Amino acid sequence: MKRQAIDFKNPALEEHFSPILSRWIKNIDKYSVKAGSYDSLYWNIERANLSIFAAAAWQCGYFAQEEYSYEKRNEDKSRYLGRVDMWLSCDGHDYIFEAKQVYVSISQKSNAYKSKIKRVLQDARDAAKRSRDKGDTALGLVFIVPYFHKEEKKPKACINDLINFIVSIDYGFMAYTFPKNSAQLESGNYLFPGIVLIGRRPRR
Which residue, of 91, 120, 128, 188, is most buried by count of CB atoms within 10 Å of its CB? Predict the structure, then answer.
């Protein structure tokens, strides 16, 4: 298993998001070196992970704004005032993100995490669809934080199974990192080895 990777199934997103995802990985890995096995950027709440992504965009010379009021649309096209998780401007191209975060047990004894990830990705895409407006590209963004019991006998196989599943699903872009210094990141009886990020445009 590669320790980190970036992949695009939607080539139109690669120009802007390849540098952002590279920086996102570097930020997480850099902090992991500093914190060792005591802490990580990625096992916090959704807003914290979104902030790392926004920081990566700024570091690439783009502009990002999180959590702001915005007029959204219901299925019947009526409008209401809500909040958008993040706006991003890349060389004049505007993106709107609705983000979700999911913690998943990736023990080899269960595949329940697969349906859970698909459900959360669909929720993020549906939210992005409600936020979409003319001139903007809307994307659902999902942060996946896997964990397994610290006595798991085949941790690498668990991670491999997760990545193989992620690669099999439909996404616009995907990135993951499993920092060396976070290999033993522990909370209670569980280890949190890394994070996966998926971005996908909603269906029209």
Answer: 128
